[in-house]
Amino acid sequence: MAATRHGAIVATLGVLTGLGSAGLTWILHAVEELVYGHGEQPGAVLTDGVDPWRMSIGVAVVAAVLALAWWALRRWGRPLVGVKGMVRGTTPPTVSTVINAVLQMIGVGSGLPVGREVAPPNSPPCSPCVSARGWA
Description:
The protein contains six helices and no strands. By secondary structure, it is mostly helical.
């Protein structure tokens, strides 16, 4: 009976992780389309054929919006917990962490060098360890 329950939990967390990762990927591609006019394609660089003004203005606008969004998140949101804190067992605030991960993916999609390694594992929908809290 316990094996069936644990199997169901693992399967559910796998689906939730996949959906969270897919959502972050869709955000990434949508921002690429918005800023560059097309998404990344095999054998081509994302910036190929993009007007430098479009690229500059797009990245500048995204950077300004993200700066305001991150300021607001840190001003009114619950304090974020980094990966080291999570490893030590500190429970991250779900809403603030998801918002932070989405903002990181928006930045990455626009070409800003932020969050490439941290957004998916830091996001509770993509982290089975955090999502499983209270299930076992």
